[in-house]
Design brief:
Keywords: Disulfide bond, Membrane, Signal, Transmembrane, Transmembrane helix. The chain is mainly beta. Helices cover 1% and strands 42% of the residues.
């Protein structure tokens, strides 16, 4: 067996010593002179300190060490592992060999697990390396790889299934159970946290390009426990980073020497409730390191309220430039045609529009977007991208800041066949008179729980005899129309929230309503309101506007362009809920109480460029639980 793994199988960590276990893998390497080379990776977990172990030659010709690299993968200095701390390290040894004949390396020491009185808890790891050329692939043999987290938590009363990721680059076919005290409930999403999108699926293969950072977004949630930490296992130099609330990111940048290799990354999120610690299931993904693709000459300029991106057309593949778009092109200010010229594709991207995503940590705000291609600009989906150019700007949250960035969402201008160009405005008002809107620079707005929030959606169009219809409205802690679990206010034209009040208006293009302020359960301090709206020919009984509330859902017929538009999404916010003690507010949310950014010290965007035109990989639909 060319792959040896030692896993902790005791029912309790109370008697475990400082060494938990190790995983060893090897990959054949070659150099320009045709010598035999091998890279051996030893990943180990310890209970006291971040140690490293070294394997020595046990049998055969083991060659000599050319390079040794060591580092820490992950640790948890505050974990509640029965008053123990753990640390995972990796040692990478590159060996030069005289031949491809098999050899063995071995490491052994004290101490592991005391299984019985008088038992000496020595451990031993034996790795057999065989680099012989395979008859099926005509390549040197490589070891299989498996991935598992250094620490797995299971309440005594809950069944959990673990699926360690196993992979063999040659195509060959071939758990740990520390137990925690009982949990009040074994239903995932209550005390035991559960993964939610956009967390990747278990076993998902991710493509990683040499020299380009791979970022994996991980999110989990639970009703009655509080997010605490993400633990992970992966290759040396992988790193983790906590974003706002319940979201984490895992990043890794493969180097040239990693080309053609596969790396597994496993992760779980830990939540706490008093002294108890609960984990999500363990998920593992596989990174396939490929050659870096063509570079696009691009300049990213980070302004106080916008991002300017200039892409040199000569460095792009042959394509139709009118098929390029930002993440959300529905607003006319997001059109790439407005500022582009004969030599450059130019995007002027507002920080709060065009699908720009906002992320944060204690010190920075991160605004991310991308330029992609679509097969048909009028289509709403695509199954391939010829080009993906990702960019971002990072701003410091502290210091002498400029208040140029407003949290207030600007009007949305759209174009629709038969109705031309028209604009939606979504505003908050101080009372039911709807006389003057609340100043946009006072956003985010603050309300007490139960206080009434007054809102108005208004359409402006040059087309006469039109009416506006609000088909749905919902609230979410993020400004995302695809948020997985929003609180529904209006659905299929029907009022759902019991506190919702709709007010009469003299104009057919206005919709005025109010609700009582509420707070999402958990750490979310802010709420966004988003609505799906459309315009119709007034008085026409065949339009969606005329059919009004449809409790069982609206049957979307093929629309006639002259009588109604498509559905458009508009949103506004955030609003913040006051608490009794403002000192208890999560300081990570400081950006929504001022949305201040620094005009200096900005980090311009890192660009990723991929060409998918010749790719043989296909997209598949996710299961309902992953969507």
């Amino acid at each position: 067996m060319v792959f040896i793994t030692l896993l902790l199988l005791s029912l309790s960590l109370a008697s475990a010593s400082h060494f938990f276990g190790s995983v060893v893998t090897f990959t054949a390497k070659s150099d320009a002179h045709g010598k035999y080379m091998v890279e051996i990776r030893s990943r180990a977990t310890y209970d006291h300190g971040c140690n490293h172990h070294y394997a020595t030659c046990h049998r055969g010709e083991c060659g000599h060490n050319v390079q040794i690299e060591q580092g820490q993968v992950d640790n948890n200095a505050v974990t509640m592992t029965y008053n123990s701390n753990w640390c995972e390290t990796e040692t990478i040894v590159t060996k030069a060999l005289t031949s491809d004949r098999p050899f063995q390396i071995r490491d052994h020491s004290c101490c592991w697990v005391w299984l019985s009185p008088g038992h000496t808890p020595y451990w031993s790891i034996l790795t057999s390396v065989d680099l012989g050329r395979r008859s099926d692939t005509d390549k040197a043999n490589s070891s299989p790889d498996t991935a598992i987290l250094p620490l797995l938590r299971i309440p005594q009363n809950c069944r959990r299934a673990y699926r360690p990721l196993t992979f063999d680059p040659d195509g060959d076919q071939f758990p740990a159970r520390p137990v925690d005290p009982p949990a009040p409930s074994c239903v995932e999403g209550e005390y035991l946290p559960m993964f939610v999108p956009p967390t990747p699926r278990h076993g998902q293969v991710l493509w990683a390009e040499v020299g380009v950072e791979v970022e994996i977004t991980v999110r989990a949630e639970a009703k009655y426990s509080v997010v605490d930490n993400l633990i992970m296992s992966g290759p040396l130099n992988v790193s983790k980073h906590r974003r706002s609330g319940d979201e984490f990111s895992i990043t890794y940048t493969p180097q040239h020497q990693n080309l053609g290799q596969y790396f597994s990354i496993c992760f779980a999120v830990e939540f706490t409730d008093r002294d108890a610690v609960y984990q999500t299931e363990m998920r593992c993904v596989l990174l396939n390191v490929t050659e870096g693709l063509a570079q696009v000459n691009t300049v990213v300029t980070c302004l106080e309220s916008a991002i300017i991106v200039e892409v040199e057309k000569a460095t792009l593949p042959q394509l139709r430039y009118d098929h390029l778009r930002l993440s959300d092109p529905s607003n006319t200010v997001c059109s790439l045609q407005t500022h582009s010229n004969s030599t450059h594709v130019v995007a002027n991207v507002p920080l709060n529009a065009c699908g720009t995503q906002i992320q944060e940590d204690d010190d920075y705000l991160l605004f991310k977007n991308e330029i992609t291609t679509v097969d048909d600009p009028s289509a709403i989906i695509t199954r391939r991208h010829q080009v993906e150019i990702k960019f971002f700007c990072q701003y410091a949250k502290r210091g002498n800041v400029s208040l140029s960035f407003s949290a207030h969402r600007e009007n949305v201008t759209v174009w629709d066949r038969g109705f031309g160009s028209f604009t939606y405005g979504f505003e908050f008002f101080p009372d039911s008179q709807f006389v003057s809107r609340i100043d946009p620079w006072s956003y985010p707005l603050e309300y007490d729980v139960g206080q009434r929030i007054y809102m108005e959606i208004q359409a402006t169009t040059t087309v006469n005899n039109t009416e506006m219809f609000v088909e749905s409205c919902s609230a979410a802690p993020y400004d995302n129309p695809n948020y997985h679990n929003p609180y529904v206010l209006i659905q299929n034209g029907c009022n759902v929230d019991s506190t919702l009040v709709v007010y009469p208006s003299m104009k057919e293009e206005e919709f005025r309503f109010s609700i009582e302020a509420f707070k999402f359960i958990g750490l979310h301090q802010k709420v966004y309101i988003g609505c799906s709206v459309l315009m119709c020919e007034a008085g026409n009984p065949n339009t969606r506007c005329s059919r009004g509330c449809l409790p069982r859902g609206a049957h979307r017929r093929r629309r006639a362009a002259a009588i109604e538009t498509g559905v458009h999404y508009v949103s506004q916010g955030p609003v913040r809920l006051r608490t009794a003690n403002t000192s208890d507010l999560n300081l990570n949310l400081v950006f929504v109480s001022g949305c201040a950014v620094l005009a200096v010290g900005m980090i311009c965007g890192v660009l990723l460029y991929r060409t998918r035109q010749k790719s043989s990989h296909e997209y598949t639909l996710l299961s309902s639980e992953e969507n």
